[in-house]
Structure formats: structure tokens, C-alpha cells
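User: Fold both of these, please.

Assistant: Here is the first one.
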Amino acid sequence: MSTRPETGIDRLIVTSNIFGETSNIASVLRGKEAWGACRVISLGGLIGIGRQPRECIAMARRSFSDILKGKFEFCLTRGSECAMSYSDRASLELTKLLLDDVTTGSDDISMTDYIEQLPIHLVENDYSFTYGSPLDPIHDILVPSDHRNHEKMREVFDNVGRICFCGGSHAAGVFAMEQHGKDFSFTELSSRSPSFNMAPSMKYICSVGSVGARLDGSPRGFVMVDKRESILRFFCIDDDHVQHQMAYVSL
């Protein structure tokens, strides 16, 4: 786990599931340029599926402030500990071949060693960031229906400060703990439901969605955070065109 004090930077992008395609990073960076975000945090899934893992790692190291380890990165170095589908294992083996004996350049370590040392959790005061859930950053992925599992959600929120950003699910939205843990809700972030307000006293978990294309039809995008104005903006990616939908939040 990586822990650091507040950086003083008010604007940031939180993104997940780049899926080994530099065009997906380019979409994030266009959003950053348009909005003026100062930091980009990758929650995991930087590589995998796509055929540009080397290029994505190099590009992200130049452009992102923080890169966390997701399930694919974890399984790349510890495959025996992962339960994966046949297609995921095929993607894993291809990525290993593409990264074989390649160094990162600046510090001359292999890319697989670089991936191995990535943190799985980042904490900055009452903001936290991870790929899966606060319970298990790698293997436990929060999905929208989890808000009905009150026992699980109470345990999850016990590990949340003010807000936690998660990247494993492809469904973008916000979990909220209501009535002091007696109830929980999930609000979708998409072009169909672009905005919502949240009470200052509540805890949240924000699922930032997926930048890479998904077969299930989930909207592609990422989340922008303005800490000073207490605003979350969900940017939907439609091919090469980035359209933003705003969700107003009182954090």
C-alpha cells in the first residue's frame, strides 16, 4: 500500500482498464488537457487484451502521477494465484511475450519487475484508491447489485474514509452508505443519468468505469474529480470523441 499526505492538487482524473491500447491513454490525456486536470491516477488494468503493453507502460509513466496494480497486472507475475477464463489466460500469455526481456529504460529494470512492484492501494488522507474493493484490492470486484448485500457493504464501508475510488467494475457509478449503514444505494453514472447530489455526511465508493471497450455494452469513460468544488465529472468516451457528463457531489 502507498500512503501519502494531501498533495494540494485539487483536480485529478481517476481511470481504469486501459487494456493495453495507447489510443485509450490518448483519450484520457485529451480529457485532461480539455479540463486542466493536474494528476492522473490509474487504478489498474493498464495492460491486457491489447497488443501495446510496452508502449502503454512507457506512456503512462510519462503522463500519470500514480499507477496501481490491478488483477491483470497481479496475475501477470503471480498467475498460479489467479482464477481466469481461457481468453484471459491467452491474453496473459501474449502480454508476457510482448514484455519479455524489455526494460523500462529510465531505471533499466524489466517491465515485469516494474509491474511486480506497483502498489495495490493508494491512500491520501480520507481519499483512497484501489482496483477491486477496500476488502480485497485484487480479487473482490464491486458490482452495482452489491448494494443489496448489506452485510458485505457494511464491511466494505468500514474500510472507507471519506471516499474510495475503485476500478474493477465496468459499470460507472457511486455507492452510498445511508441511514448510518442501515441501507445502501448505487447511482449509475452515464449519459442517461448524468448528475446527482450527495449529503456531506455520507461515505462513498466511486466505481470509475472502464476506458477500454467492453462487450457488455457498458459506456466507456473515466472520472474527473474537483476536490475544491466537490464535483465529480464522468467523461463518456464515444469512439474518439469525448463528451462529459457532470455529477455534482458535496464531499
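And the second sequence with its predicted structure:
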Amino acid sequence: MRRLRAFLWKEMATYRSCDHETGADDERLRCELGAGERLLWVGRPPGGLVFEVADLVYVPFSLLFLAFTIFWEGATLLSDAPLLFVFWGVPFIIVALHLTIGRFIFDAHVRGCTVYGVTSQRVLIVEDSVRPSIRSLSLRSIVECRLVECRDGSGEIAFGKHGSVPLLRPPRSWTSGLKSAPPTFFRIRDARAVYDLIREAQHVAA
């Protein structure tokens, strides 16, 4: 268990956002600015291993699923079952390993390649990950802007509605790379100040 924990932290450390200089982030976002558009703020999600409230449900489920798939595969091998049954369980073990460990590593990679920005006209989320993407929201089109603060001053700013409560909503590590969830600034520093900045920029842009 200690070796596994050390391996995970080593993998996560390679994707920490602190490895990227703020100047490089500024230049990356300035490439997306239009004529007369000004960059007001640049930030990043945290690096490393991140647990959410929903993981209180999803982690035990993924561990049970992994245990069941290993038990199934072991029982199949010991029973001299046909080769088809042996290979049948392999994809399920791969999926279970991803749900238990792989999703955290992939999510850390995606966060390490993500830059947030607020301009005089838009909110930007740039991901230079496996599939590079840019999510752009006009300040005038943002109807709901929801802030959730943590005690340390960090927090999340969601641009849209979340349809479920935090405990039931899939954690970010389950949905990294998907665009179905509302665009969100995930656990940014000084979240209240950024939230106020967005509101002020909306007022000016209106």
C-alpha cells in the first residue's frame, strides 16, 4: 500500500500546475484575444491528487468493482474455464483499474494542461491536453455564475447549473475531458476576488 501511494504521488507531481510559469499562461491566452479585448485575470486549477465529496461514494464503489473483477478472473483461471471466459474478464479489470487509480492520474494530467482566463469580453477555459480545446463564454451570455468557497479562500466558479447535489454529482476525475458539465473554474485561488472581478466585468460589458 505504501509503495502504491508513493507511486501515485510521484505520478501526480509530474502534472502540478506550479511547473508552468504565469508568463507562459498569459501568452497562451493572449493568442486567443480579439481586437480590443483585454486580459483581466489568468489562473489554473490545482495540481496533484484531488479528492471531492462525491469520492466518498465513488471510491468505495470502484474498489468493490475492482475486487469483484479480480475475484471473477481468478475463479475463471482456477476452474480451467474456456479461454473465452478468461479473456472476457480482462476488459472489466482494465475499466476497474481506471476507475480506481487511472482516473486520478488522467484528471491530474488534464488539470496540469488547463488555463483559465477572464477578459473584458469573455471567460476562457483552455485545455492543451489529449484533445486540445477552448471553451469561450461571452460575459453577456452568462446567466448564472455560482461561487462555492473553501475555508482557505480557494473555490469553484460554475457558469451554469449543476443538476445534482455534490455527493451524487460525479467527481471531476470521472468526467475529465467531457464537455457535458457546466464550464467551471475548478478550485482556483482567491475565488471570491475572481468572482467579483467577473461580476464587475459583466457590468461594464453590459
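The radius of gyration is 20 Å.
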